[in-house]
Amino acid sequence: MLTKEEIASVFKCDIVGRDIIYLESAASTNDSAFEIGRNRPDPEGIVVVAEMQTKGRGRLGRSWISPAGVNLYFTVLLTPSFTPEQASILTLAVPVAIASAIRTLNGLPAQIKWPNDIIVNGKKAGGVLIEMKAGKTTSQRLLAIGIGINVNMSPDALPSEIRPLSTSLKMEKGESVSRSELLGGILSGLEHAYKNLLNGNKRDLINEWLRLNCTIGRRVSVRNQDRTISGIADGVNERGELAVRLSSGETEIVRAGDVTILKD
Ligand code: BTN
Question: pTM above the 0.90 mark?
Answer without folding.
Answer: yes
